[in-house]
Amino acid sequence: MADTASDIPPQALAALLGFYAESGVDGVCEEVAIDRFAQSAEMAQSRKQNASRNTQAPVTAGAFGEQSRSASDGPGSRPSPAMAAQRAPAASGASAGTTPAQASQLTVPGEAVFKDARALAESASTIDELRAALEGFGGCNLRHSAKSLVFADGNPEAEVMFIGEAPGREEDLQGTPFVGRAGQLLDRMLAAIGLNRQTAYITNMIPWRPPGNRTPAPHEIELCRPFIERHVTLAAPKIVVMLGNVATKSLLNTDKGILSLRGDWMEYTSGTTSIPAMPTLHPAYLLRNPAQKRLVWADLLSLQQRLEDMNGT
């Protein structure tokens, strides 16, 4: 059962409303999402049935009455949210009894779920235990639409830990972060400064793919935050590189954008942990804006110099 507004922590509700506003949402249409594909198929089927009745039956008061009722399912009307949820077929990958409307809803969990996430993350004493904890955590709605838990790749004992946003389609299919086009570009970026997946550690803020590759909602980021913070603590890298806006804003607790922050060394702090951090542009952004690669090249050179200074080379 979904939480009511009174069950949702004020800060989570405010974050969700802010997310909706930034996404361009300016009004409420329905309380429950509607599967428009199923609705269109039903309309087409209804029109076929009406046409069949019109050719086979005489025009009587009864036939006219039936036609009037069936016309209520036409393009000029829409079923109630409850009716739409009942009619929607089961989605592939969704659990039995779950409609696509229910599977795709942005449901903000109650405060108890956030507490469970923090306790579960804190209980992990190794990276393997953290992965097992995430595999058993059912509080994030993203896991129900994703195919795989995309945990990490590379060397967990590496000096540098790269943290992106969330898995895409290819990552979800393979269960490995950064294996699509953005991942191939990241590999070339690493190679340019003498790193690879054996000498670097790669993960994401969010371990499950958001539907349609959308930006993770604020409450989803907050729900996964304890796990990524624990991940950094357990991996204990010498340097953390945040790739893109989501990882940078979340881990550095800032409202500034990545273009304002990149190029400067920051400090990532969590509890007693304090690690040098370099925010830079996400490889997916560079694929859309190749002219910005020059900025990332400067960041990579700064990272290379920092590693050399640390190691005395």
Automatic annotation (TrEMBL):
Residues 77-104 have a biased composition (Low complexity). It comes from the Bacteria. Pfam families: UDG. It catalyses: Hydrolyzes single-stranded DNA or mismatched double-stranded DNA and polynucleotides, releasing free uracil. Residues 42-58 have a biased composition (Polar residues). CDD domains: UDG-F4_TTUDGA_SPO1dp_like. InterPro entries: UDG_Type-4/5, Ura-DNA_glyco_family4, Uracil-DNA_glycosylase-like, Uracil-DNA_glycosylase-like_sf. Its EC number is 3.2.2.27. Keywords: 4Fe-4S, DNA damage, DNA repair, Hydrolase, Iron, Iron-sulfur, Metal-binding, Nucleotidyltransferase, Transferase. Residues 151-301 form the Uracil-DNA glycosylase-like domain. The keyword Ribonucleoprotein does not apply. Transmembrane segments: none annotated. Belongs to the uracil-DNA glycosylase (UDG) superfamily. Type 4 (UDGa) family. This is Type-4 uracil-DNA glycosylase. It comes from Hoeflea phototrophica (strain DSM 17068 / NCIMB 14078 / DFL-43).
